[in-house]
């Protein structure tokens, strides 16, 4: 993971580039930046600089909140406890010692690494429900890695199958999440379309994927069997 821009790098605007972002941590500058965003005076580059500056400023608070919510979910969330038990039965061990809350720069909610565990991007978490869905998603990847010996590096079909299962079983594609947060207002086939969309995006981001058409082809090839596979659950219940 690459290092984010330091605060010193953010202190001087780029020459010849009026992004609408004003460096500074004082209240006046903060609200001036928000005003520029609301009025359309800040470019996409400026909005990203504003987010980086905010993430740097709130890093300690964000990570502390993420740690607290992670610990609560590990103890009280039915889906997280069930996934933890299922992973433990396969010889794995996921707990607070290898589920890390960190500030991320790639604008993703989290990730799974077979060597290190699970990463939760503290600066991207909207609330505890979002963290629960993200953690459940990554735990499905961990389960699949142990149960099915997934070849993450070289086999896109393996990765696509796990992405389908993770999006389907984690709860991130339930109707309320799609309707109220993502503006997906269809009443039929909503769950399937959400799972397919998110799986394609994940596969497309992998180094071995050529483009969106390639990602769609791979997801379609494994869709039927992987969408029906709800292990370790009896059914999709979230």
From TrEMBL:
<feature type="region of interest" description="Disordered">
    <location>
        <begin position="1"/>
        <end position="25"/>
    </location>
</feature>
<keyword id="KW-0496">Mitochondrion</keyword>
<dbReference type="Pfam" id="PF09768">
    <property type="entry name" value="Peptidase_M76"/>
</dbReference>
<keyword id="KW-0482">Metalloprotease</keyword>
<keyword id="KW-0378">Hydrolase</keyword>
<dbReference type="InterPro" id="IPR019165">
    <property type="entry name" value="Peptidase_M76_ATP23"/>
</dbReference>
<comment type="function">
    <text>Has a dual role in the assembly of mitochondrial ATPase. Acts as a protease that removes N-terminal residues of mitochondrial ATPase CF(0) subunit 6 at the intermembrane space side. Also involved in the correct assembly of the membrane-embedded ATPase CF(0) particle, probably mediating association of subunit 6 with the subunit 9 ring.</text>
</comment>
<dbReference type="GO" id="GO:0005743">
    <property type="term" value="C:mitochondrial inner membrane"/>
</dbReference>
<protein>
    <recommendedName>
        <fullName>Mitochondrial inner membrane protease ATP23</fullName>
        <ecNumber>3.4.24.-</ecNumber>
    </recommendedName>
</protein>
<dbReference type="GO" id="GO:0034982">
    <property type="term" value="P:mitochondrial protein processing"/>
</dbReference>
<keyword id="KW-0479">Metal-binding</keyword>
<keyword id="KW-0472">Membrane</keyword>
<dbReference type="GO" id="GO:0046872">
    <property type="term" value="F:metal ion binding"/>
</dbReference>
<dbReference type="GO" id="GO:0033615">
    <property type="term" value="P:mitochondrial proton-transporting ATP synthase complex assembly"/>
</dbReference>
<keyword id="KW-0645">Protease</keyword>
<comment type="similarity">
    <text>Belongs to the peptidase M76 family.</text>
</comment>
<keyword id="KW-0999">Mitochondrion inner membrane</keyword>
<dbReference type="GO" id="GO:0004222">
    <property type="term" value="F:metalloendopeptidase activity"/>
</dbReference>
<feature type="compositionally biased region" description="Polar residues">
    <location>
        <begin position="1"/>
        <end position="10"/>
    </location>
</feature>
């Amino acid at each position: 993971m690459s290092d984010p821009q330091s605060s010193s790098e953010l202190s001087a605007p780029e020459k010849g580039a009026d992004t609408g972002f004003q460096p500074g941590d004082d209240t006046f500058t903060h609200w001036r930046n928000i005003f520029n965003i609301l009025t359309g005076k800040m470019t996409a580059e400026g909005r990203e600089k504003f987010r980086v500056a905010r993430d740097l400023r709130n890093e300690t608070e964000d990570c502390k909140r993420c740690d607290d919510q992670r610990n609560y979910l590990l103890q009280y969330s039915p889906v997280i406890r069930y996934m933890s038990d299922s992973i433990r039965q396969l010889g794995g061990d996921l707990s607070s010692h290898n589920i890390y809350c960190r500030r991320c720069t790639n604008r993703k909610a989290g990730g799974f690494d077979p060597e290190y565990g699970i990463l939760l991007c503290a600066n991207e978490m909207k609330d505890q429900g979002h963290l629960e869905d993200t953690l459940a998603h990554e735990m499905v990847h961990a389960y699949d890695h142990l149960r099915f010996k997934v070849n993450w590096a070289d086999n896109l079909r393996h990765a696509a199958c796990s992405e389908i299962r993770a999006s389907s079983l984690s709860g991130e594609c339930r109707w309320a999440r799609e309707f109220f947060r993502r503006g997906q207002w269809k009443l039929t086939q909503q769950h399937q379309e959400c799972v397919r969309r998110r799986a394609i995006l994940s596969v497309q981001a992998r180094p071995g994927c050529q483009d969106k058409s390639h990602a769609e082809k791979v997801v379609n090839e494994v869709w039927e069997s992987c969408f029906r596979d709800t292990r370790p659950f009896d059914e999709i219940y979230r």
